């Protein structure tokens, strides 16, 4: 069973922060063979923004799922954003990704009610995000040399 935790950057323990960064690098940099600076650096500070929420999913003591929720104005001027959506390779195919998104949407609704959520989704995952109520609102564009699309979701829960 997955245990979900939500923390701001300052609430993360050193272990939780290390786990999150390691999972993100393992998937986004190593598995997807996409060398890019996962840490936001001095300019954006998205991970460290006081209103950014980090959602961590642990099974036993292993981090198997993660995403971050950015308040309106951080990633997009008019939208709350979910990003860095990732599940551990060994946990895929179990429905964990769907549970991660449900948890992420739930926390968006709780912390940012009546806000539309915007994501930059890898294009091949569009059906996955459509299942969670997201609608494509852009043509394909390259982000870190990977095809992406912009998607929006209103704040009501999907019917499924």
Protein structure class: alpha+beta
Characterize the main sheet.
8 strands, mixed
Q: Specify the CATH architecture.
A: 3-Layer(aba) Sandwich
> Quick one: how many beta strands?
8
Sequence stretches where pLDDT stays below 50 over 5 or more residues: none
What letter string, H or E per element, gives the SSE order? EHHEEEHEHEEE
- Look at the structure and name the CATH superfamily: Gcn5-related N-acetyltransferase (GNAT)
Portion of residues in helices?
25-40%
Keywords: Transferase
Protein name: Protein ElaA
Domain N-acetyltransferase: 7-156
GO molecular function: acyltransferase activity, transferring groups other than amino-acyl groups
Report a brief summary of the structure.
With 160 residues, this protein is an alpha+beta fold. 27% of the residues lie in helices and 30% in strands. Strands 1, 2, 3, 4, 5, 6, 7 and 8 form an eight-stranded mixed sheet that branches.
SSE map:
Layout: E1 3-7, H1 14-31, H2 41-44, E2 53-59, E3 62-70, E4 80-87, H3 96-111, E5 117-122, H4 126-130, E6 135-136, E7 141-143, E8 146-153
Parallel strand pairs: 4-5
Antiparallel strand pairs: 1-2, 2-3, 3-4, 5-8, 6-8, 7-8
